[in-house]
Specification:
Elements (H helix, E strand, L loop, with lengths): L1 H10 L1 H19 L2 H11 L5 H45 L7 E2 H14 L4 E10 L2 H7 L1 H17 L6 E6 L2 E5 L6 H15 L3 E3 L2 E3 L2 E10 L3 H18 L5 E3 L2 H22 L3 E10 L4 E13 L3 E3 L1 H11 L2 H16 L7 E5 L2 H4 L4 H12 L6 E5 L1 H4 L3 H14 L2 E7 L5 H7 L4 E4 L1 H4 L6 H17 L2 E4 L5 H9 L4 E2 L10 H10 L18
Parallel strand pairs: 1-3, 7-8, 10-12, 12-13, 13-14, 14-15, 15-16, 16-17
Antiparallel strand pairs: 2-4, 2-7, 3-4, 5-6, 9-10, 9-17, 10-11
Helix pairs in contact: 6-7, 8-11, 10-11, 12-14
Length: 528
């Protein structure tokens, strides 16, 4: 608002100056009583006709002032038109008029400025070329093609941070200069997310358009970006196109090999999900102070037929980047319900739901269908969601949580304490349980700050009548400290690692004839 006011005042500065001068002169005249003196003088010299002369001077002043005002307005309008023309010229010179992105000239200027600044750190450049875009123009016309290009620009920008520069080089070709802090791993993840995003259907003029993209990546020192960066990225793009499109390639041989291995892993993951070869494993959730297993958290595990066990950090990251995370989540939920449907009804099954799954408008229906088809009791299911899922649309989140609870499903807020709006979420959303993030629990006995945080969370939860589970209990001291705070449930490597469904069956069968629940400690041969 202050900037807007200043611009308005600046545009009317001439009028303000005239008014100010008039007021000053009026004040001088009043102070010196010039009007009374003039009146007295004119009466004494009536034959001079001074009153007529005064009126003439007054009218001349008014006319002159009006002319000056008109002239000032004319000049101001001319200056504004000149500034607007200059702004538009700069806009056309540096930015693409269709997408609003930087153009080739701006992008190359940016590369040159880095070279002149002598910034020695390596930077990563990407060239993006759309696949199957030419038929869009040929079949549907350039208006539809232009609409698709605008959407492509928005989708690319959505994956980049403020330190990266994206430009439209021309036609259906785009370029990215990644920020200085972006390493090769992050650049490749961003590139894969862009491929996934652009591969989603576009809506334009009541038409559904499907295209793809290929990306070439290269890294070079800032002083070599102008001479080598774009050329190397363009060669890498050619390699990606030859690989079958919808792919990315590095100019660097070692990075290229790693990228090819990841692409192979991505294809293998697609097949594994289709064939239900990614399995649910189950980590015990234990009652603190009772040494009884109260339920299990479901965790995804994948053993590749050639590569062996693949770390969840690896294949879940791939699933997120390629849009497979929802498919992964649903297949794990379905398999877990199928394996656990005959377990004791007082054991809970806690399943993580990704933000993408949670924001699916058919979330409740899909969960209900899986429970019904697999014959699993909704009262035994606990859905775990993170703050990243709920803060996107709080109204939708509240509605979805209440619908799940009406089915009998328990809803927990996972990784509590790591987000930015935890207290607000607890006030607005009806969670049944909190799961304290492992970063606050592991080695808590030696960390006074974490001790105070956990004490505060437990006190808050008791006041709101919300259950609490502590994740990351790894040592005896962790267990003793959390138990002393009267935390209800806990889980972590201290109790056991995640185990297969067959091992859970073995455990339950071993205590079938006992009157007590299974204890938290498994035989030593089965410990992590």
């Amino acid at each position: 608002m202050p900037i807007t006011v200043w611009k308005h005042l600046k545009s009317n500065l001439g009028y303000l100056a005239i008014v100010a001068i008039t007021l000053v002169l009026w004040q001088i005249a009043v102070t010196l009583e010039l009007f009374e003196r003039f009146h007295e003088f004119s009466r004494q010299h009536e034959d001079w006709e001074l009153d007529e002369i005064g009126i003439l001077v007054l009218l001349s002043s008014v006319a002159t002032g009006g002319a000056l005002i008109w002239r000032w307005r004319h000049l101001s309008q001319a200056l504004r038109e000149r500034d607007e023309a200059q702004r538009q010229a700069e806009q056309h010179a540096w930015f693409d008029p269709l997408t609003g992105l930087a153009n080739r000239r701006y992008f190359q200027s940016r590369l040159k400025s880095l070279a002149e600044a002598g910034a020695g750190a390596c930077r990563i450049v990407a060239i993006i070329d759309l696949d199957r875009f030419k038929p869009v123009n040929d079949l549907h016309g350039h208006a539809v093609g232009d609409a698709v290009l605008k959407c492509v620009a928005r989708r690319i920008q959505a994956e980049l941070d403020a330190e990266s520069t994206v430009a439209r080089l021309g036609g259906d070709e785009f370029a990215i200069l990644f920020g200085e802090e972006t390493d090769t791993n992050e650049a490749e993840r961003i590139a894969r997310r862009i491929i996934t995003s652009i591969g989603q259907p576009f809506r334009a003029d009541d038409l559904t358009v499907v295209i793809g993209t290929s990306i070439g990546l290269a890294r070079a020192g800032a002083d070599a970006l102008v001479t080598e960066g774009l050329q190397q990225a363009d060669r890498a793009l050619y390699v990606a196109k030859r690989a079958g499109r919808g792919a990315l390639a590095w100019y660097d041989a070692d990075l290229g090999q790693r990228s090819r291995e990841r692409a192979e892993l991505e294809n293998d993951l697609r097949m594994a999900l289709r064939n239900e070869e990614v399995f649910p494993f189950f980590q015990p959730i234990c009652g603190l102070g009772t040494n009884e297993i109260r339920g299990f958290e479901v965790l995804a595990r994948w053993t590749h037929p050639q590569r062996g066990p693949i770390s969840p950090d690896v294949f879940i990251e791939i699933a997120e980047d390629t849009g497979l995370i929802s498919e992964l989540g649903w297949t794990i939920l379905r398999q877990a319900c199928r394996r656990a449907r005959n377990w004791p009804k007082d054991l809970t099954l806690a399943v993580n739901i990704s933000p993408k799954q949670f924001l699916d408008g058919a979330l409740v229906q899909k969960i209900g269908d899986i429970l019904r088809e697999e014959g699993f009791d909704p009262h035994c299911l606990e859905i775990e969601i993170t703050e990243n899922a709920v803060i996107v649309d709080m109204d939708f989140a509240g509605s979805a949580i209440r619908e799940l609870q009406s089915m009998g499903v328990t809803v927990a807020l996972d990784d509590f304490g790591t987000g930015f709006s935890s207290l607000s979420n607890l006030r607005r959303l009806p969670f049944d349980r909190l799961k304290i993030d492992r970063s606050f629990i592991t080695n808590i006995a030696a960390d006074p700050s974490n001790q105070r945080i956990v004490e505060g969370i437990l006190s808050l939860a008791r006041g709101l009548k919300i259950g609490v589970t502590a994740e990351g209990i790894e040592t005896e001291s962790d267990l003793e400290f959390v138990s002393a705070l009267a935390c209800e449930y806990g889980q972590g490597f201290y109790f056991n690692k995640a185990i297969s469904a067959d091992e859970v069956d073995w455990l339950l069968d071993a205590v079938e004839d006992c009157e007590e629940r299974p204890k938290v400690h498994f035989p030593a041969s089965r410990q992590a």
